[in-house]
Amino acid sequence: MKLKTHLHPTSSLVDLTPLVDVVLLMLIFFIITSDILPFKSLNIDPPVIDLAAPPRTTQVLVIMDAQNVIYVGSKKEIVDLESFQESLQAEIDKFRKMHSDADLAVVLSLDRSVEYGDFLRLFALTQQLGVKIRLMYHEACSTSNV
């Protein structure tokens, strides 16, 4: 028995499914194996800075922690409240000797548990020296629920 079909083979129908599969696989392969290109660098001429120029702002750091321990200067010298002014004045004089043209400011960094009276005493002693004062406050990170 012979079956007759009415379909005639034509060459105009091309199946693109294998081609799309291969192109997709190649695209995925090249994306995965390629390195991300670095950003193109911009041609920027940096300004010339004189190394002997003093900084625009010089800061003397004063820290009071939760136990009312006072640290003065970049080396965090521990001082008590009675010798605080002398130590801070020595630190200010040292910075002014190194950077006479700089705008000096004393940065007071206090723990949030420091009593208000202790803060006022420290602030008043600093204010008597006649320098700019900046206050710095960092909220403590706590893991307990209050």
Folded structure, characterized:
There is one protein chain. The protein is of the alpha/beta class. It has a domain at 57-136: Nucleotidyltransferase, domain 5, CATH 3.30.420. It has helices at residues 17-33, 84-98, 116-127; strands spanning 57-64, 70-72, 77-79, 103-110, 132-136. The model is unreliable at 141-146 (pLDDT under 50).
**Radius of gyration of CA atoms, rounded to a whole number:** 36 Å
Report the strand count. 5
Helix content: 25-40%
H-E order:
HEEEHEHE
What would CATH call the architecture of the domain at 57-136?
2-Layer Sandwich
Which features would summarize this protein structure in a list?
146 residues; alpha/beta; Nucleotidyltransferase, domain 5; five-stranded mixed β-sheet; 3 helices; elongated; disordered C terminus
Helix and strand topology:
Blueprint: H1 17-33, E1 57-64, E2 70-72, E3 77-79, H2 84-98, E4 103-110, H3 116-127, E5 132-136
Gist of the model:
By secondary structure, the protein is α/β, with parallel strands linked by helices. Helix content is 30%, strand content 18%. Mean pLDDT is 79; it is low at 141-146.
